[in-house]
Amino acid sequence: MYISEKQIEIRYAETDQMGVVYHANYLIWLEIGRTQLIKDLGFEYAKLEADGYLSPVIDVSIQYKAALRYGQVATVRTWIEAHSRLRTTYGYEVLHEDGTMAATATTVHTLVRKENFRPVSLSKVDPAWDAAYIKNMREMC
């Protein structure tokens, strides 16, 4: 299974009054990790949108384990946890520099036409992209 890694330098603006990363910023980091995974696999999400498709998040789950703080570097690890005709589930780990787990997460996405938000299969939109996701899942087994 391919796991993408992206480092995030934690900015002061991402912290709360307690000096720890504000919980909602993890959602942004998950997007950064997901975008990096897609790029690593040879595809571009921006092209998908330019072609008239969107991939909205339909479910998100985050488990916070250990606080991150300003000045630290977090690593977001991202992989394809599940991929079916209409849904893709991405898995994530957010790590401290020493490898300590800061958070784990999953996001579930569907693919829709931008014009009417009707679901469409990735295999019909971009067969090569769909095949890359399927191949990644098969390597996991």
Automatic annotation (TrEMBL):
Keywords: Hydrolase
Keyword hit for Hydrolase: yes
Enzyme Commission code(s) on record: 3.1.2.-
Example of a GO MF term: fatty acyl-CoA hydrolase activity
Keyword Protease annotated: no
InterPro entries hit by this protein: 4-hydroxybenzoyl-CoA_TE (IPR050563), HotDog_dom_sf (IPR029069), YbgC/YbaW (IPR006684)
Stated family: Belongs to the 4-hydroxybenzoyl-CoA thioesterase family.
Cross-referenced PANTHER family: 4-HYDROXYBENZOYL-COA THIOESTERASE FAMILY MEMBER, NOVEL THIOESTERASE SUPERFAMILY DOMAIN AND SAPOSIN A-TYPE DOMAIN CONTAINING PROTEIN (0610012H03RIK)
Record-given protein name: Thioesterase family protein
Source species of the chain: Metasolibacillus meyeri
